[in-house]
Design brief:
With about 350 residues, the chain is of the alpha/beta class. Among the domains are: about 1-50 and about 65-90, no CATH class; about 210-335, Ribosomal Protein L15, Chain: K, domain 2, CATH 3.100.10. It is built from 11 helices and 8 strands. It has helices spanning about 1-20, 30, 75-80, 120-130, 195, 215-225, 235-240, 275-285, 295-305, 305-310, 325-330; strands at about 25, 90, 210-215, 255, 270, 275, 290-295, 335. The strands form 3 sheets. The chain has a 3-stranded parallel sheet with strand order 3-4-6. A 3-stranded parallel sheet has the order 5-7-8. Strands 1-2 form a two-stranded antiparallel sheet. The radius of gyration is 56 Å and the shape is elongated. The N and C termini lie far apart (about 160 Å).
Length: about 350
């Protein structure tokens, strides 16, 4: 009876050893009932299995609860595990270890292209391909800036974890901590600013006039090109329509005599100012230069008469020149509105 019990326990231990390293407890009476031929305690090493020098082969998935191919016999188990203080049968470890096994190294991931050399067109193509739109690789709905081209602003005052919470980088109190904190430009803390400490230089003349300069050779060139009709009076509106005098004609046109020695056409001109040399050259060629006076409103009516008609207003009456200008002899006549087309005889 004891022998059959020992054999059943040994069979269970050999079946459970590959899975859990089972222990089969044997009582002292059962061990004492064995014969000398069944449990050789004289030489325990003789019954142990031979251990090979090669390392055990590692298996990732061992069969569930299957006995090892070379399991030692029952007497060897008893002689190997019998101690003085405790009579317990300890099954040896299985020849394989179903524990953590180092996995083979994974292949390296392909390196992504550098963003520093990624153009906006490449980014747009990538977005278009990922979106899968029907507009092709380049579509208006797929255009985007490069990654990092537009940085989002830092949201300050939204908690200590952001690094810009509480005082939001402004410190404690003071003018620089308030809203609209920047002082005006030139403020120096209350002392007299530099722009006031420096002395004044020069003055502004409220009666100064700014004229657009036109040379007589440019007028002759426009006449030869057919843009100006020399049989009519050449007014400041005629010069402006021909592209002479610039866009901003503030106070009128001043005619200068560059190229006047080549003048051979009789020209009749009405300008605000004219040099003495150009007046002599034009009169020598059979023409005439008349210095006319227009105030700001009259000059606007001369250059843009359609503006008054569009607003439903009448053209203003010509303004008389100031007495000082008459005394200096700077004008010859009062400008007429609308602009004349034929020379006054």
């Amino acid at each position: 009876m004891h022998l059959s019990l020992l054999r059943s326990l040994a069979r269970r231990a050999s079946q459970r050893a590959p899975c859990h390293s089972a222990r089969a407890a044997i009582s002292t009476r059962a061990v004492a009932s064995l014969g000398a031929d069944e449990h050789p305690l004289a030489d325990p090493r003789a019954a142990l299995p031979a251990v090979s020098a090669d390392p055990p082969r590692i298996r990732l998935h061992p069969p569930a609860c299957s006995p090892p191919p070379h399991s030692p016999p029952l007497p060897a188990l008893l002689s190997h595990s019998l101690t003085l203080r405790s009579l317990h049968l300890r099954a040896p470890l299985p020849p394989f270890a179903p524990f953590s096994v180092p996995l083979p190294p994974a292949p390296p991931l392909p390196a992504a292209p550098s963003r520093a050399f990624r153009t906006a067109a490449a980014t747009a193509c990538a977005h278009a391909v990922s979106a899968g739109g029907g507009g092709g690789l380049l579509a208006l709905n797929a255009l985007a800036d490069r990654d990092g081209a537009r940085r989002t602003g830092k949201r300050v005052g939204r908690g200590m974890g952001s690094g810009k919470g509480k005082t939001a980088g402004r410190g404690h109190k003071g003018q620089k901590a308030r809203s609209g904190r920047n002082p005006k430009i030139g403020f120096e803390g209350g002392q007299t600013p530099l722009r006031i400490r420096l002395p004044k230089r020069g003055f502004h003349n409220p009666f100064s006039l700014t004229f657009q300069v036109v040379n007589v050779r440019d007028v002759v060139q426009k006449v030869e090109q057919g843009e100006i009709d020399a049989s009519h009076v050449i007014t400041m509106k005629t010069l402006k329509d021909a592209g002479l005098g610039g866009k901003a004609m503030r106070d009128g046109v001043k005619l200068l005599g560059r190229g006047a020695h080549h003048l051979s056409l009789p020209l009749h001109l009405e300008v605000s100012r004219a040099s003495a040399s150009v007046r002599r050259a034009v009169e020598a060629a059979g023409g005439k230069v008349t210095r006319v006076h227009y105030n700001a409103l009259g000059l606007r009516a001369l250059l843009k008469p359609q503006w008054f008609a569009k607003k439903g207003r009448l053209l203003p009456r010509p303004a008389r020149p100031p007495p000082r200008i008459l005394q200096l002899g700077l004008v010859d006549a009062v400008g007429t509105l609308p602009a004349p087309t034929h020379p006054v005889t």
